Amino acid sequence: MRFHTQTAGSTLTAQQPLNNVVRTTVQALAAVLGGTQSLHTNAFDEALGLPTEASATVALRTQQILANESGVTNTVDPLAGSFFVEALTDALESAAWEIISQIDEAGGALAAVEQGLQKGQIERSAYEASLRLESGSDVVIGVNAYVVDEPEPLVGGTVDPQLEKDQVAALRQYRSTRSGQAVADRLAELVSVASGPGNVVPPIRDAFAAGATLGEISDALRSVFGTYAE
Amino acid sequence: MMSSETRRTSSGIEIDVVYGPERRVDPARIGEPGHYPFTRGPYPSMYRGRPWTMRQYAGFGTAADTNERFKALLEAGQTGLSVAFDLPTQMGYDSDHAMAAGEVGKVGVAIDTLDDLRTLFRDLPLDQVSTSMTINSTAAILLVGYQLVAQERGIEPALLRGTIQNDLLKEYIARGTYIFPPRPSMRVVTDLFAYCAEELPSWNTISISGYHIREAGSTAAQELAFTLTNGLA
Questions:
Q1: pLDDT by residue (tens digit) across B130-173?
Q2: Is residue B77 very low, low, confident or very high in pLDDT (cuts 50, 70, 90)?
Q3: What is the pLDDT of residues A162-218, one digit of tens each?
Q4: What is the pLDDT, as a whole number, of residue B61?
Q5: Nearest-angstrom CA–CA distance, A49 and A47
Q6: Is the pLDDT of residue B14 over 90?
Q7: Distance from B141 to chain A by nearest Cα, in Å?
């Protein structure tokens, strides 16, 4: 098993976006102190739009500065049994065990999903957090404290509307040059396997290789499995 | 603020005024680096041995745009690839489907066909980098596409290293890009496990994720409990 960490997109603010570099740095340091095996650092403009090449580079540089300049890599486990961190770990562990036993009682994760158990708990926590933010007991700099009048924010990247037209044109071109019969045969084979107990991955591969599109393969599976809406 | 008031973490865990040696951290409980319970880290030498993998999630626009960004990130010293797909690709819709309108290439790269994947990975050393794909409901299609592209270039599937997210339960709990009902979704997940054991032995076939659970507003304890129980399911 390996573990990967990502800094929290939900903590990034559209207000005073450069502050997000600092937030991401603190979170990345926490991940490294926790011994992460791989890490994604968010770009500071993600609350505004797509990361630009410049903001994506700053996000990567944040990791490189931690690795090469901060000194955090020079010793194994720099927090080494910190009284506070160990106490938090224990508290978190016992709180998590309590929730795990609720899921076990519900019949396991899949059954709990079908009952909406996890979703309901998350919604309650999210609501409580929004109340704390509103009341000011949780402080977010630039949002409910140290707010300034800002000019139009530094806008992140946006998507050119031409892109969708080009993508659709390429897709139609692709469909027009493949063998329609081969695609139909492979999709029929996929439907047949999906209806039985066999492994669906080899017929997915054969259909994709024969020129079926992602949407057509997904439709073939929808026709057997049905769709899901809450 | 008064110094005596109760303070809590953002997850509601109460924090004492000061912590000290009376807590008696048992050396046996934290263990040694590289050994159970891994409190001190997964490897004996940790980052003195080698730093963590710097894996920036990227993807936008067309396959050609994202291919350029990947090349720039590898040149800038990134050590692994990580692909973000647009919503239609995650939901199993082609770019010309009515449900795709306005979303093509927006939050990630748009992939409809094997040709798109050929372009996405053009000139990238697939036998040397590891590639993470944040993809769930359509993971099977994109993973076999990756395999087909590598094979066309003469790369043995056994050499391919990477990860697909393929964690469907958290889609129903928090993230929302599910297509089928939970049970058939879980069948595709396990079919992928079996397929990869045969064909792509170096591939990580699932990445159980707490990230989206926390992003949806959970506490740390909920994140931990739901993620672990999803892993067990």
A1: 999 999 999 999 999 999 999 999 999 999 999 999 999 999 99
A2: confident
A3: 999 999 999 999 999 999 999 999 999 999 999 999 999 999 999 999 999 999 999
A4: 85
A5: 6
A6: yes
A7: 6
B118 CB neighbours in chain A (<8 A) are none
What are the CB-based long-range contacts (under 8 Å, 24+) for B70-74? B70/B124, B71/B123, B71/B124, B72/A53, B73/A56, B73/A60, B74/B124, B74/B129
- The two tokens of residue B227 are 């993620």
Q: B101: phi > 0 → left, psi -120 to 50 → alpha, else beta; which?
A: beta
- Provide the pLDDT for residue A157: 61
pLDDT at A81 over 90: no
Residue of B30, B61, B222 lying closest to A159 (CB–CB):
B61
Rounded to 5°, the CA angle B83-B76-B69 comes to 35
Enumerate residues 6+ apart whose C-beta is below 8 A from B88.
Answer: A215, B94, B95, B97, B99, B100, B103, B104, B110
Q: Check A103 against B225: CB less than 8 A apart.
A: yes
Phi, psi of B162 (to 5 degrees): 165, -170
According to DSSP, the β-strands at B14-15 and B7-8 are antiparallel
Which residues have C-beta within 8 Å of that of residue A228, sequence separation ≥ 6?
A: B172, B178, B179, B180, B181, B182, B185
The reply to whether A227 touches chain B by the CB within 8 Å rule is yes
Q: Residue ranges of the domains in chain B?
A: 52-232
Q: Which tokens sit at B111?
A: 């992939």
Residue A156 pLDDT > 70: no
Q: Which fold has domain B52-232?
A: TIM Barrel (3.20.20)
Spatial contact of B9 and A88, defined as CB atoms under 8 Å apart: yes
How many of the other CB atoms lie within 10 Å of CB of A172? 14
Residues B184-224 have pLDDT tens digits of 999 999 999 999 999 999 999 999 999 999 999 999 999 99
Q: Does B49 touch chain A (CB under 8 A)?
A: no
Q: How far apart are the first and last CA of chain A?
A: 32
- Taking the C-alpha atoms of residue B143 and residue B194, their distance in angstroms, rounded to an integer, is 13
Q: What is the CA radius of gyration of chain B?
A: 21
d(CA A80, CA A7): 23
Q: What's the mean per-residue pLDDT of chain A?
A: 94
The pLDDT-based confidence of A154 (bands split at 50, 70, 90) is low
Q: Is B81:B109 a contact under the CB 8 Å cutoff?
A: no
For tokens 């953002």, name the residue.
Answer: B10
Sheet holding B53-54, edge to edge: A4-6, A38-40, B53-54
